[in-house]
Amino acid sequence: MATQDPDCLFCKIIAGEIPSRQVYADDAAIAFLDINPFHRGHTLVVPREHAPDLLAGDAGLGEIAPAVDATARLLRDRLQPAGMNIFSSAGPVAGQEIFHTHVHLIPRYAERPGLRGLFDRDLAAGDDLDIVHAELTA
Question: Active site: which residues (predicted)?
Answer without folding.
Answer: 102
